[in-house]
């Protein structure tokens, strides 16, 4: 299975965007032109590999521990600015991003935070992870596998840290 990236920001590199089969929009946020435009802008930035404007991130992103991100690998982006309640929930991988749902901050109020959100989307996330694995396998077979940076390989445990000099 591909490794879920638990980074506080989206990587500024080209990735494929796919929706979870369990994707939902219970409050019909996509009916609002401003929120729909925000989701399109986020998708475009991910596909093109351009950095996402900081207004989409929480004010403390990277500085404050996000339990859902560190535990489940599920991150959220704000659809207005950092103070809005309307959110896009997603999971980030080295080559893909999976959109889970459009909703609000309610998943943070459950104990533990996000347990219901994770439970609802678990099967959809696992299905997409299998599809990502198949995609990467077919790309590798065709000689088109995306090259990972040294930092990506290290985070995924594919390279060992350099050995310390022995002083001889």
Textual characterization of the structure:
With 168 residues, the chain is an alpha+beta fold. The chain has four helices and four strands, in the order E-H-H-E-E-E-H-H. It has helices at 33-48, 67-72, 115-141, 150-155; strands at 16-24, 74-78, 87-92, 96-103. Strand 2 and strand 3 form a beta hairpin. The longest helix is centred in the C-terminal third of the chain and has 27 residues, at 115-141. The N and C termini lie far apart (42 Å). The model has no long low-confidence stretch (mean pLDDT 87).
Total helical segments: 4
| Integer count of domains | 1
Radius of gyration: 17 Å
What would CATH call the homologous superfamily?
A: RelE-like
What fold name stands as the CATH topology?
YaeB-like fold
Distance between the termini: 42 Å
Largest sheet: 4 strands, mixed
Tell me how many strands there are.
4
CATH class category: Alpha Beta
CATH architecture call = 2-Layer Sandwich
Q: Which structural class best describes the helix and strand composition?
A: alpha+beta
Q: What are the segments in which pLDDT stays under 50 over at least 5 consecutive residues?
A: none
Mean pLDDT: 87
List descriptors.
four-stranded mixed β-sheet, alpha+beta, YaeB-like fold, 168 residues, 4 strands
Q: Which helices and strands appear, and what pairs or packs with what?
A:
Elements: E1 16-24, H1 33-48, H2 67-72, E2 74-78, E3 87-92, E4 96-103, H3 115-141, H4 150-155
Parallel strand pairs: 1-4
Antiparallel strand pairs: 2-3, 3-4
